[in-house]
Amino acid sequence: MNASPDTLPLLRVTQAVKQFVLRRTLGDRVARRPGVLHTAVDHVSFELGSGEVLGLAGGSGSGKTTLARMLIRLVEPDDGQIMFGDSDVRAASGHALREIRRQMQMVFQDPYSSLNPRMRIGAAIFEAGKVHHQPGVDDEAAFVARVLDLVRLPASAARRFPQELSGGQRQRVAIARALAVGPKVLIADEAVSALDVSIQTQLLNLFLDLRDELGLSIIFVAHQLSVIAEVADRVAIMHEGKIVEIGPTAEVFHRPQHDYTRSLLAAHPSHTAPTPRGGSV
Ligand SMILES: Nc1ncnc2c1ncn2[C@@H]1O[C@H](COP(=O)(O)OP(=O)(O)O)[C@@H](O)[C@H]1O
Ligand SMILES: [Mg+2]
Questions:
Q1: In 7, 41, 167, 187, which residue has its Cα 20 to 30 A from 111's Cα atom?
Q2: Which atom of ligand 1 is closest in space to residue 41's alpha carbon?
Q3: Domain count, the chain
């Protein structure tokens, strides 16, 4: 018998591949050597459940950002399958692709990349909701206040410009803008990495609250294991484009199976040693 639909994963990635052609040097061109292919994401498979927080950890250049962007085709996959519910992400175009991108929203490290510095925060949130015909959008002030409240900002923040806010507040606004279109999934790529530790913790708690309140699923990309430990139910460890290990966060951190995971954990300074939620296993 088939599994019932609500037990199916929300997102299923199977053998996803992305290769980049490395820049050819002048010498390569003179010698007519072709560009070298670099496999940034190398046959990666994983699933994301509804309401789950999946951490994606790994060193710089391990392919985390490339993989995250492939999920909504900001980077075109070269091979493999990405299923979002019943939708084949690689085959989608036009309205279907826009709908996939509405439902899977990215939050970046630098909120300036998603916020127009000349647009008031309220207008940015309203515009996002209006474009996607979100419920309640006919009453602009109430819609904006409700979305700001989700990220624990006062309604008065609507009148501010992004540069008038602190880094943590600005990241809350970036999250608000993502929430304004009614997503099912947030893909946070190093969304707290540039912030002070105390602000990081506040934002991680916000992500967890949003998961509980809205039933969101979250893919949380971070190179800091301490961040992953605070937020993720499961963690995937990336190394040289591959997921070398994936499992419940406490299990992976306490009983790493792969040498690379062990070296990542060992490289962590002891004062920030990751302590997964739920403690030891
Ligand atoms: N647009 C691109 N063109 C060429 N190489 C790229 C491009 N984007 C990423 N890469 C390469 O792919 C690899 C993975 O990068 P990235 O996904 O940014 O890693 P991470 O986010 O884990 O630091 C790196 O070697 C990087 O240099
Ligand atoms: Mg990255």
A1: 41
A2: 14
A3: 1
Helices 197-214 and 167-179, packing angle to 10 deg:
20
- Ligand 2 center to residue 94 CA distance, Å? 27
**Ligand 1 atom closest to 190 (CA):** 21
Residue 64 lies in a domain: yes
| Cβ–ligand 1 contact at 64 (below 6 Å) | yes
Query: Per the domain annotation, does 278 fall within a domain?
Result: no
Residue type, 99: E
The answer as to whether 19 is a domain residue is yes
pLDDT in tens, 56-115: 999 999 999 999 999 999 999 999 999 999 999 999 999 999 999 999 999 999 877 778
- Are 132 and 181 in contact by the 8 Å Cβ rule? The answer is yes
Find the 27 Cα to ligand 2 centroid distance in Å. Answer: 30
